[in-house]
Structures are given as structure tokens and as C-alpha cells.
Amino acid sequence: MSTPEFDAPPPPDVAAPRGESRRILGALVIASATAMALGCLLRQPTMMGANDISRWCTVWSLLERGTYVIDDCPWHSETQDKVQIPEKPERIGPDGEPVKHYYSSKPALLPTLIAGLLYPARAITGVPLDRVTLQKREPRWSQVPDPDHPGKVKGVLTAPDQPVKWPVHVFYFKPVLILLNVVPFWGFLVLLSRLLDRRAGTDWSWSYTLVAAAFGTYLLPFTQTLNNHTIAAFSAFFALYLFMRIWDGEADRPWRYALLGLLAGFTATCELPALAFLGLVGAALLVRSWRPTLTWFAPAALVPLVALSVCQYAAFGSPFKLAYEEFGTEAYMFEGSLWKTPMELDALNLPWTDPAEAARRGIVGESYATYLFHMTLGHHGFWSLSPIFLVAAFGLIGLILRRRGAMTAVAWMTLALTTILLAFYDWNPKARNYGGSTQGLRWLFWLVPFWLLMLPPALDAVAARPWLRRLALLALFVSVMSAGYAMRGPWNHPWIQDVMDQLGLYPLPR
């Protein structure tokens, strides 16, 4: 089979009938990856860490109390991702101080949507989300030291004091996670395989890209926990899919413009830097076809943004106030707050938010260059942990230099968005902890679909060069290993940081 080079004509954009081998491989890969995501989600705890508990607290408060205040939530003591701010309108308490309440520090739209999804089930069953069913334990034999015969044991029949606890919230929250994470993951793989029918010139690039998308990124391990990053990634991909169809002139119907606007706008509500994505897509469509862009795309894009503003107003009394903008202020410094004495990666924020405390504890902040290195090729590196994107980088360059059409537009968009996000998070003084205790650089996860689309041209170019194919396989091996390392729990450090930590190469306050 001849190998398409970067300066060769691109593969035809019209999808050829999928061969039997691709159909079989596609079905196996998609079914296996979706089943793995579902199995891990069902097996893992529903509440895995401070990040997702914060959102679940808001869901509980909306359904059980009809408010965004999480003071009464039985789980709110288990999360530090919250703020304590004065009640709106302000009310003075008996001590002469403004009455304050706890709120989740996460944007309010996603928990509000989840509460809306669960409202019918909660209303019909009448069962509170925080109910716990207790099961008495039966007596069982165990061995204990025999006080009358030192060095020996004796059997005793005892019943454990603590009963078995079966929390009801699992039956409410697991279906939500399946709907928000597993079903879109399946749809993402199905649509990606269809895109590859058009964009991949060889079976090698088609197979590699689909396997990489299924098992070689952090989207798979993060499907087991409630988070905004996977939701944003899938929403961005579905928007990209529509954008490419419209750009190629295959889907000019008004409803497609509207759906594209809705998805791009929703992506921005999940990841605020994705406003740049919304702007780039809108600008590109304006150049191509301004009338449907203004009449269908733009109004639809405003819907999720307005919905976010309404939810923020309902929660905080301001349509444009985001709780995490208060980071470093007294809103985060409530009694017992972790942020008063942050440890590990969170301590890297101190030199920027509280220089005096950093100096007292001897914590030195990282330079912009050091931080950028670890975001890209270091312990949380987008390319070091997922080196398949190093392969994709060659595809991006090739598309920009040689080709035209929708893929070139996506390549330029990928380059622009990656540059914007790296610059933003390198500079942002309130987010210099690599996302905290998390596998991978989660702030860039929503760009994963963009970079996956850059793989086929690079892989097609090396299809007939065995040693380059072996390097690509090595990159896939490391990427899948990184994802596998995260499957036990996404709210932990990636393997590169664990190695550096255990070797004493990157000591952190503990």
C-alpha cells in the first residue's frame, strides 16, 4: 500500500464503504471501551473526592432544600471546594456579624441541570437523596489473643457493632453519571469512527486513532466521576463534528447551525476558556455563511450562556460572579479550611495568593518557565503523559502547511486554543497547582478530541515506515499506561509525579 505524504493529496472527504475488518475492529473497540467505562463507574464510589462531592452537595440542596446553600448537606464537610459568603440580601446575625452560608465553588449550571434530571425520580419515590439503609451484621467467629495462654489465640463469636450501610444516593447518582459520561463516550467513539472513514487514508491510521481515543486518553478514567472536563470534551467534539460537516457543505440545514451553537455555548459553560472556541467557530462560520450563523448559530449559543448567568444569579445574586474568582480571599478562609494550610501541589498557589504565608513556610513558587514545562512535558504534561499527541503534532503541522478544507480549519483552531490555554494557565495566579490532586492536566482535557483528529495525517505519512510505526506504538503504549494508572481513581497524582516524588526529585509540603 502506498503511503500518503503530507504533500500528497488528502484522502477523499466522501466516506467510502467501511470494510469488514474495520467494522469488526470498530465494534470490538467501541464495545470494549464503553463496557470498561461502565464497569469502572459502577464499581467505584459515587463520591470520589472534593471536586465531585462539591457538585453533589448542590444537587442535594436544590432537591431537598430548594436552595444553593449547602449548609445542611450531610456531605459538605467532606469537600473543601466551597466558599463561605454573606447571605444575599445581607442579614445581620445575633453576634452583629453578617450571616454567612456555604456554597459550592463550582459553576451552578451543571448541578442545576442534574437536579432537574433527578427531580421526577425524587418526587415520585419520595425517598431523600441522603437516606441510608442499615443492615444489622450477623455474629461471626474470629480469633483474638488468648489472655490465659500467651502466644496463642482463641475463637470468639461476636457481632460487629457497626451495621452495613447502603446509601440511597447511589441509585440516584449512578444513572446520572452513565447519562453524562458513558453514553456520550460511546457516541464520541461512534462518530469519531465515522469521521475516520473520511479522514484516515490507511487501515493503520484508522485503527490506531480509534484505539487511542478509546483507551489512550484521560477521558476514559474520568468517565467514572462527576466532572466538567469530560462533559466539555464530548460537547466540544460533537460541535466539531457538526462544524466539519457544515464547513464541507454537507449539512447546511438551519437546525445544524443551531445545534452547533448550543453545543459550543454549552462547552463554554463547562470550561470558561472555551469561550475562545465559541468565538473561533463563530468567526469561521461568519466567513463561510453569515446569514445562518447570525440567525441560528448565535442565538442558540447564547442559550447556555444565559442559563449559566441565571443560575449564578439565583445562587449568588450576580449573573457574572463565579465563586472560584474569590480564591485567596476570606470566602475560602473559613474555619477549618484546607486553603489556610494547603499541602502538596496546592501549596504552589501560596506564593501568588498569600506571599506572607508562603515566606513563613518556606514555600517558593515555580517560575513561569518551570510551570509551563510541567504542563507540557513534565509531571502533568499534556504531551509527556499522552505522547500520542506528540505524534498528532506532526499531523497538525502537516495540515497547516499542506492541506485545505475542514481539517486545516480544525488544525488552526487546535493550535490557537492550545496556545491560549497554556498561556492562560501559565499566567493565572489563582490556578498554579496543575489542577490539584488529579491525573493529568485536567484543564486541557476538553482539547483531547481536537488533538485526536490530528493523528490520521501523521499516521498515514508513516504507514509504510516500520521504525516510525514502532515509535508511534510506543507513544500509544505510554498513553494507554497513563490512562490505566488513573483507572483506580482519577483524583490522584499521575505516574510521572509519583515517580519523581518517590525519587526525591520533586518534594512537596505534606
How would you describe the overall organization of this protein?
Helix content is 54%, strand content 6%. With 510 residues, the protein is mainly alpha-helical. It has helices at 20-43, 50-64, 109-125, 169-199, 203-215, 228-247, 254-270, 275-288, 290-316, 350-353, 355-361, 368-376, 388-402, 406-427, 448-452, 455-461, 466-486, 495-502, and strands at 82-86, 100-104, 132-135, 140-145, 153-158, 164-167. The strands form 3 sheets. A two-stranded antiparallel sheet has the order 1-2. A two-stranded antiparallel sheet has the order 3-6. Strand 4 (140-145) and strand 5 form a beta hairpin. Mean pLDDT is 91; it is low at 1-10. The chain starts with 19 loop residues before the first helix and ends in an 8-residue tail after the last helix.
